[in-house]
Amino acid sequence: MTIRNLDFFGLLFVFLASILGIGAYYYLRNRRRELYPYGNWDELLKRLAPLDHQNIERIAEDPAAHSEHNVLRVETMDPQDIWRLLGGMRGIEVMEKNCSVLVDLVFYVQQWYPEALHIAEQLRLNAREVEWHIGRLKATAKSGRPPAAAAEYLQQAVAIYYHMTREVLALYEQANLPGLADLQRAL
Amino acid sequence: MHLSRVIFAFWAAGLTAQILLLFVLLARHRARTFPVFTTLIAANVLNSVVLYEVALHGSKHDYFVAYFAFAVLDLVLQLSVTYELARHVFCPTGTWARDIRKGFLILVLASLAIAFALACLPSPPEKTVLGMLLDRGNLFSSALQCELFVGMIAFSSTANLPWNTHVARIAQGLGFYSLVGLLTEAGHNILTRNTMAYQSLTYVRMSTYLLCASYWIVMLWLPAPGPQELPEEAQRQLFTLQRRVEYDLRKLRAFKQ
């Protein structure tokens, strides 16, 4: 066997191992989703990390989070308060993880109710964008920039996250989908 | 050209499976959903008939030329089927999902480069130019298909896009066939034609094709699970939620860091 053929088999081996490894990982991940559209319900609940709902609500309902309010006339939240109420970096990380669970909930709707496909597809894209914004915030916070610099951005992200969780809960309630009580406790 | 009994048996079994599969695609109205896949199977039926005729009445060179022409057609159609499946998964609303477009283009370009490098590497024993082109082309095609299918699985999983039942079954069959094809073509590229080892690899590839065709016949005959109905109130709720998130996102996008 020539050296070139040995190189070929070496490369082929690496290629096959990568293809099979990546393929098996994602295939099993997809398969689990198909079997348990939300992810296994218990696993999903484990993935949802607790956040202080009252604090999240306070940040989200602050007048500064609503552009229709004239923020100069009312007292708004201090950037340091937002950071503290959210629970700092841990809060951002939890929000990011919970957001991916919200994407899973939309996935459920898209998979089982094809007639709602158009709207669910839009929502899936939106949920992924929220995830992206939160990821960006995390990177900003990790880079050591003072939280005050991104406070307004952070507050908007929290507000969207909060409203999404409330609306998803309402959706599950209206559609009479299973597991609502568990979801309410977790979110 | 003389055909051995084994090759004749594979040919007959292959043709029967392809005709049956074509019947299933037409009778169960799957051809409307998968026109390119149906064309691929129809082209395979034609391929089997023409190659049989050329093998019996033509020269060895004629057979090679006909085989090469059908191999090119097969490659083009297989790639088109991959595109057809990708459209089913990544264009649920008729246009490509925004979060997928760029990544999918990178996947295609990277897959082409890797498959090309892999196909160029082996140094085969003495072969005709046509024979070498065929073996390298088959290796390129199998490697490319494997990469594209794995890439599609990864993208759909990351972006949370579901696979419809029949799309998944066609992709599984094609993916498995490409994977086995990759191994057999790797062997073909370093072995001399008409040796026992070379022939055995051809039989493995043909058996795999028969297996996949049988799998498609059964799976495409069976109906896909029926969709459930989303209550009207829930649809309204979903619509409101999407509008609200979209509105909120506009504010978030306006922020500069």
3D architecture notes:
The complex is a heterodimer of chains A (187) and B (257). By secondary structure, chain A is an all-alpha fold. Chain A has helices spanning 3-35, 41-47, 53-61, 79-86, 88-112, 117-142, 151-174, 180-186. Chain A is built from 8 helices and no strands. In chain A, helix 6 (117-142) packs antiparallel against helix 7. With 257 residues, chain B is mostly helical. Chain B has one domain (5-229). Chain B has helices at residues 5-27, 35-57, 60-90, 101-120, 129-159, 165-190, 196-221, 232-254. At the A-B interface, helix 1, helix 5, helix 6 and helix 7 of A face helix 4, helix 5, helix 6 and helix 8 of B.
Describe, in short, the structure shown.
The complex is a heterodimer of chains A (187) and B (257). Chain A has 187 residues and is mainly α.
Quickly list its features.
heterodimer; A: 187 residues; mainly alpha; 2 domains; 8 helices; B: 257 residues; 79% helix; globular
Helix content of chain B: over 70%
The succession of helices and strands of chain B, N to C, reads HHHHHHHH
Tally of extended strands of chain A?
A: 0
How many separate helices of chain B?
Answer: 8
Mean of pLDDT of chain B:
83
Order of helices and strands of chain A: HHHHHHHH
SS-derived structural category of chain A? mainly alpha
**Unreliable parts of chain B:** none
Write down the overall mean pLDDT of chain A: 69
Point out poorly predicted stretches of chain A.
37-41, 68-74
As an assembly, this protein is heterodimer
Strand content of chain B: under 5%
In which range does the helix fraction of chain A lie?
A: over 70%
Question: Strand tally of chain B, please?
Answer: 0
Fold topology:
The complex is a heterodimer of chains A (187) and B (257).
Chain A: H1 3-35, H2 41-47, H3 53-61, H4 79-86, H5 88-112, H6 117-142, H7 151-174, H8 180-186
Helix pairs in contact in A: 3-7, 4-5, 4-7, 5-6, 5-7, 6-7
Chain B: H1 5-27, H2 35-57, H3 60-90, H4 101-120, H5 129-159, H6 165-190, H7 196-221, H8 232-254
